[in-house]
Write a structure and sequence with these properties.
Largest sheet: 4 strands, antiparallel
Number of helices: 12
CATH topology of the largest domain: Triger factor/SurA peptide-binding fold
Helix content: 40-55%
Order of helices and strands: HEEHHHHHHEHHEHEEHHE
Mean pLDDT: 83
Number of domains: 2
CATH architecture of the largest domain: Orthogonal Bundle
Strand content: 5-15%
Structural class: alpha+beta
CATH superfamily of the largest domain: Porin chaperone SurA, peptide-binding domain
Length: 343
């Protein structure tokens, strides 16, 4: 009979939510193909963010986790300022706490990490290359170079991630068996977050204000903010797009119909498909301009059918019921650990 750990291994290989890469298309200029990225600075590899029982969490490790979320935050906050800095600081703190917990778990259970067959880890890396980088090995290699990782080091990261996922799914006290309705409800939530994002398609209206038009980039941002206020007060989006938008669809009232998410950059795709509702969104920034959008329709990519992931839904429901017990265990583990934060 398989051990609980071996059973959990199979379930935990379900991947983290992928981030979808940009695939440039014909739009000139296209604000959705101009990703915002934190500016490169000095190498952070040898700087410490925290230590846990003498094990080092580097600032580079932390920023690898923060960077994708920071990228979206930067797009949403074209003026930056104190509110942006406060949100960024909160993000760093949350991710650092998570890395600290992961380090504690790994230290406690690291003897198990070699139980994962190498071929399973390699398969997971290939899945990440396919889902996150559209199968583009060169794009993945660029990521590794940017984060100072070799492929083997990346594989070891995935091995540790898998261990942490499994430990978090382990038994922390008995709970009632999930009911069918609970499994179905969990599946509804899971199907949204675990869908194939490469199949997302959206129809939306957009007003794009290029930074090299008007009086200045600051003037264009001022205008974008004024237009957002007018739109929220009931102004006609199509008419304002015809008057002010600088992109190729201005004459169509800013209408972009059935645009695949993979034709957009990471930030634009996240804002378009991960923001609920159809309110006016923006202005958000890219490298060459400011965007205002209103969603007309989202066609979300498919998820695996319920029958294929029923066991995973059971694990998720049980894990959620045990969350309180897990947190009590983690609190005890944190109290025993020597934790030193440098941020």
């Amino acid at each position: 009979m398989k051990s609980r750990f071996s059973q959990a291994l199979g379930l935990a290989l379900i991947a983290l939510v992928p981030v979808i890469p940009a695939n440039s298309q014909e739009f000139l200029p296209d604000p959705a193909d101009q990703p915002i990225r934190p500016k490169p600075g000095p190498q952070l590899v040898n700087k410490m963010a925290a230590t846990v029982n003498g094990d080092v969490i580097t600032l580079n490790e932390l920023m690898i986790k923060v960077a994708p979320v920071q990228s979206v935050l930067m797009a949403r906050s074209p003026r930056r300022g104190p509110a942006y800095e406060a949100q960024l600081a909160q993000l760093k703190s949350q991710y650092l706490d998570d890395l600290i917990d992961r380090t504690i778990i790994f230290t406690e259970f690291k003897d198990r990490v070699r139980t994962f067959p190498d071929h399973q880890i390699e398969d997971e890396v290939k899945r990440i290359v396919q889902n996150v980088y559209g199968g583009d090995e060169e794009a993945f290699k660029n990521y590794l170079r940017a984060t100072n990782l070799t492929r083997d080091q990346f594989k070891e990261q995935q091995r540790k991630e898998l261990l942490v996922q499994i430990v978090r799914s382990q038994h922390f006290g008995d709970v009632a068996a999930p009911k069918e309705a609970e499994l179905r409800e969990e599946y509804k939530k899971w199907a949204i977050t675990s869908r194939d994002r490469t199949k997302d398609v959206g129809t939306y209206r957009r007003i794009y204000l290029a930074k090299n038009r008007g009086s200045s980039p600051r003037g264009q941002l001022d205008l974008a903010e004024q237009l957002v206020k007018s739109l929220r007060a009931g102004a006609d989006f199509a008419e304002l797009a015809k008057t002010h938008s600088n992109d190729s669809r201005a004459g169509d009232g800013g209408l972009w119909k059935d645009i695949p998410r993979t034709d957009r950059n990471i930030e634009f795709g996240h804002i378009l498909f991960e923001t609920p509702g159809k309110e006016i969104l923006g202005p958000f920034e890219d490298r060459v301009g400011f965007n205002i959008i209103q969603v007309v329709e989202r066609k979300l990519g498919p998820a695996k059918p319920f029958a294929e992931v029923r066991d995973e839904m059971k694990r998720r429901v049980v894990s959620e019921k045990k969350k309180g017990n897990f947190e009590k265990w983690m609190k005890k583990m944190r109290s025993r650990a020597v934790i030193n934060k440098m941020l």
